[in-house]
């Protein structure tokens, strides 16, 4: 994480964190492993620093004892994590990696191979999955489910405002910083509104995640919007920041 922050600064950006580390069991041994998607990293001011040509690095680190080793490393056009036990990772390759023309794309399902201690391609198809929104060019159109607020709506309704719901208060300042308090623990960190409308945060102790704002029954609601967490926090209210 320190290396990617440093690379962001070297590129002329400012580290913004975001939800780019996914902690799940990918190898099937019951222990949490780590998928790192550089394409999900928020380098403020340099959004393409880790998404050159619409592609980005995905790594999977497998836990072994008190350490973790790299079991997968590839620059891909997209990926997704399937809700299976253990979690299944699919990636989108293109060009020669698909055995075809440079414009060809293909979906590959990764399988953990214990003897080699690596993830290998278990299957491939000619019908690619939709690449992660975060790997699309910044100006690409994003189609959202009905009721979900767009990035512009989140910027106008949550940024620079106080959001309250589920016993928690969030203060989103216009400089990209936030504070929250649930009556037990006070947190602070940075946030960014992504092109798909998710508000993603990274607190000072390294915890990160994303929220999604949506309308339901005429009220504004909030839910988590991470691959492994879509918990609905319920209705929220929006007000002015305290003076």
Write the layout of secondary structure elements.
Layout: H1 2-10, E1 14-15, E2 21-24, E3 33-37, E4 43-44, E5 56-64, E6 67-76, E7 78-82, E8 88-94, E9 105-113, E10 118-125, H2 151-157, E11 161-165, E12 168-172, E13 177-181, E14 186-193, E15 199-203, E16 208-216, E17 219-224, E18 232-235, E19 237-240
Antiparallel strand pairs: 1-4, 2-3, 3-5, 5-6, 7-8, 8-9, 9-10, 11-12, 11-19, 12-13, 13-14, 14-15, 15-16, 16-17, 17-18
Give a written overview of the molecule:
The protein is mainly beta. Helices cover 7% and strands 46% of the residues. It contains two helices and 19 strands. It has helices at 2-10, 151-157, and strands at residues 14-15, 21-24, 33-37, 43-44, 56-64, 67-76, 78-82, 88-94, 105-113, 118-125, 161-165, 168-172, 177-181, 186-193, 199-203, 208-216, 219-224, 232-235, 237-240. The strands form four sheets. A nine-stranded antiparallel sheet has the order 18-17-16-15-14-13-12-11-19. A four-stranded antiparallel sheet has the order 2-3-5-6, with no helix packed on it. Strands 7-8-9-10 form a four-stranded antiparallel sheet, with no helix packed on it. The longest helix has 9 residues, at 2-10. It is globular. The two termini are 35 Å apart.
Overall helicity: under 10%
Low-confidence stretches: 126-143
Using the CA coordinates, give the radius of gyration: 19 Å
Record field, number of beta strands: 19
Q: What is the beta-strand fraction?
A: over 45%
Instruction: Please outline the major beta sheet.
Output: 9 strands, antiparallel
Sequence of strands across the biggest β-sheet: 18-17-16-15-14-13-12-11-19
| Alpha-carbon distance between the two ends | 35 Å
Structural class: mainly beta
